[in-house]
């Protein structure tokens, strides 16, 4: 499996046309020539669309009636001329052609209603019905008749609140000995079982279909949409994927960075798929070239590759081809990637700071009525660390016990449920010298969603759980020491999160570096001050931030949902407090970058070479609407300090030498200018 490890420039032909247009015109020879000129190394090429129509001469499915040729056959022939490798795109879940002939194959809700308007338009079929044999037969037909290098599956999931079709009901009875519950209650065994059943439908289908294809051609590289996607959080079948891929929709740049930091810890090659259009697929208006290039920079600096989605105009005055500006923008971005490939291929993230994203925690929260800000906490931690110029990875609960020993710092943002295996790994990590930041409910709940009497990691935190606050907002106050010098000398608000702050008791060895202040009152329509929430008024002895030595390591515990509150409010003071906590734990980190908050940092190793990636990421809104990157404004004189002793340093790809200054156990240097992306290459580390 070398294709995805040895290539970085990809495209996705997202050609969902159906049969409503008067014709389908597609000049495949021109398309492949333009894709070659645009620098594409792999193309994911449409074989069956969301309507259920096929784009090749199928003997099993329904070929699109508006096609005069076999598009896949043409694509294979033309791609071979330019050395472009083809991945066969197949839309699994959406198929109106099959649904109309076989209504029993449709996914259904608890009332038996078929899902006929998925995404507003499409019939959603059940992966547990005999439809999966139809899919397997079509995929086998493609694998046996066409020289494709792999497959990409789209829409391989169960629609929310489905599937109660007859086939799933039967399978549920076979698995659990009872009929599926129509309305399982939050916190119940029935809801946890039902949610697991929905995941089992998808996982069983992906196991079944990858096994079929691998028996035909073991060398096929197989992946699917949302493989390695945090928001999807279905990690079990991802072990079967040869590559991981997720949608990445600029201008939501921070999520692309987060995806890369999560995917790269799996050891699998990965891509981020970006529509070359404004925001989403099928908008028929391109995003600015600078936006495409920014997405490419985020993907490659994070250790992955970029895939630009695009669609030729099939009919009308502009029919037959991609608009030239789209081809030009993809070419510009691919050339940007190509110039940097020497320093990208086979590079791996350097373990230093890890953030835990516990899929088990997410599933526990989703099966209960507990306040759910799992995504807010993760997004907040991601944004704070990026804006703090911190290099970090994101670990799953499955990966953490195996990988944690290589890291220096672990962050656990409100991980309410932590598996016993992770608890033991964290305890051993800190005791052996590791550093930990944990917040709010971390390790306070069991798998069943019931609050425990105390934190599972209370001995590591140096605090015991006492109670929850009765107020919807809180204030961090009374900061101790010079570590919080850049925080204003006044209480700092924590709000926007439905989970209250916690009251905790200090262990003998722990010390508080901040305490809570409570508002004057809980605001109601009949009792309030001003028109939001009450001012800080009541000093308490309740520790808000604590420090505790544990074995050879130490832990900072924060009794407030600071990550989620930061994501909701954008409070710069919460970010500064968080960064100060990190400095308090580790005053001399492996890598220090003094840069504006818009500079994302990644540290990669490539043999004896270290590479510091600096990416200028701006995520902005104007009056609440999206803003796209159109121009790149340079920043100057970025100071980089690393605790390593390289033999030389230069900026890639131009190989501009950089002067090294010895500082203690490391070196520092100045990057004179960063536009969109700079690579500091440290040779001989």
UniProtKB/TrEMBL annotation:
InterPro entries: Beta_galactosidase_Trimer, Class_I_gatase-like, Divisome_Glycosyl_Hydrolase, GH, GHL6. Residues 352-566 form the Beta-galactosidase trimerisation domain. Pfam families: GHL6, Glyco_hydro_42M. CDD domains: A4_beta-galactosidase_middle_domain. Gene3D superfamilies: 3.40.50.880, Glycosidases. PANTHER family: GLYCOSYL HYDROLASE DIGH. This is Beta-galactosidase trimerization domain-containing protein. It comes from Paenibacillus hodogayensis. The lineage of its organism: Bacteria, Bacillati, Bacillota, Bacilli, Bacillales.
């Amino acid at each position: 499996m070398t294709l995805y490890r040895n290539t970085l420039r990809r495209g996705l032909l997202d050609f969902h046309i159906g049969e409503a247009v008067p014709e389908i015109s597609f000049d495949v020879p021109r398309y492949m020539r333009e894709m070659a000129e645009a620098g594409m190394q792999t193309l994911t090429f449409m074989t069956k669309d969301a309507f259920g129509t096929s784009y090749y001469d199928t003997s099993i499915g329904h070929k699109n009636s508006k096609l005069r040729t076999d598009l896949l056959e043409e694509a294979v022939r033309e791609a071979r001329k330019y050395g472009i490798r083809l991945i066969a795109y197949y839309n699994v879940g959406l198929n109106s052609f099959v649904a109309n002939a076989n209504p029993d194959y449709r996914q259904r809700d608890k009332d038996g209603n078929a899902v006929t308007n998925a995404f507003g338009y499409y019939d959603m079929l059940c992966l547990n019905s005999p439809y999966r044999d139809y899919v397997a037969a079509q995929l086998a037909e493609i694998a046996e008749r066409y020289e494709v290098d792999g497959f990409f599956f789209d829409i391989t999931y169960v629609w929310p609140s489905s599937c109660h079709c007859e086939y799933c009901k039967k399978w549920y009875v076979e698995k659990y000995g009872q009929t599926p519950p129509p309305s399982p209650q939050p916190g119940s065994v029935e809801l946890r079982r039902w949610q697991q059943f929905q995941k089992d439908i998808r996982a069983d289908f992906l196991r079944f279909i990858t096994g079929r294809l691998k028996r035909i051609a073991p060398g096929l590289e197989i992946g699917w949409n949302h493989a390695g996607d945090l928001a999807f959080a279905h990690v079990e079948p991802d072990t079967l994927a040869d590559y991981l891929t997720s949608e990445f929709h600029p201008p939501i740049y921070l999520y692309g960075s987060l995806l890369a930091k999560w995917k790269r810890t799996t050891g699998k090659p990965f891509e981020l798929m970006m529509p070359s259009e404004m925001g989403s697929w099928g908008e028929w208006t391109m995003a600015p070239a600078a936006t495409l290039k920014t997405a490419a920079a985020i993907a490659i600096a994070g250790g992955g590759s970029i895939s630009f989605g695009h669609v030729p105009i099939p009919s009308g005055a502009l029919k037959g081809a991609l608009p030239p500006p789209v081809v030009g923008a993809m070419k510009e971005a691919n050339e940007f990637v190509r110039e940097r490939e020497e320093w990208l291929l086979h590079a791996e993230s350097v373990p230093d700071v890890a953030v835990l994203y516990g899929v088990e925690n997410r599933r526990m929260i989703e099966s209960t009525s507990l306040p759910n800000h799992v995504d807010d906490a993760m997004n907040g931690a991601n944004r704070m660390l990026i804006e703090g110029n911190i290099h970090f990875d994101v670990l799953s609960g499955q990966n953490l016990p195996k990988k944690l020993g290589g890291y220096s710092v672990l962050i656990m943002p409100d991980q309410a449920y932590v598996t016993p295996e992770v608890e033991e790994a964290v305890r051993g990590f800190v005791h052996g010298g590791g550093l930990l930041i944990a917040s709010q409910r971390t390790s306070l709940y069991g798998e069943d969603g019931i609050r425990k009497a105390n934190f599972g990691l209370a001995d590591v935190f140096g605090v015991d759980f006492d109670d929850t606050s009765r107020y919807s907002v809180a204030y961090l106050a009374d900061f101790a020491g010079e570590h919080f010098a850049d925080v204003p000398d006044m209480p700092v608000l924590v709000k926007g999160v439905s989970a209250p702050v916690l009251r905790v008791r200090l262990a003998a060895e722990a010390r508080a570096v901040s305490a809570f202040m409570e508002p004057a009152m809980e605001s109601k329509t009949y009792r309030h001050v001003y028109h939001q929430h009450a001012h800080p008024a009541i000093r308490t002895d309740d520790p808000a931030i604590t420090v505790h030595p544990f074995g050879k390591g130490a832990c900072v515990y924060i009794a407030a949902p600071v990550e989620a509150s930061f994501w909701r409010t954008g409070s710069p003071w919460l970010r500064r407090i968080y960064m100060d906590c990190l400095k308090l734990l580790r005053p001399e980190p492996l890598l220090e970058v003094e840069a504006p908050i818009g500079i994302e940092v990644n540290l990669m190793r490539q043999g004896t070479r270290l590479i510091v990636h600096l990416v200028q990421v701006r995520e902005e809104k104007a009056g609440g609407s999206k803003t796209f990157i159109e121009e790149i404004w340079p920043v100057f004189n970025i100071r980089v300090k690393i605790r390593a002793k390289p033999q030389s340093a230069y900026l890639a790809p131009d190989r501009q030498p950089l002067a090294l200054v010895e500082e203690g156990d490391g070196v520092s240097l100045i990057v004179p200018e960063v536009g969109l992306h700079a690579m500091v290459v440290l040779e001989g580390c």
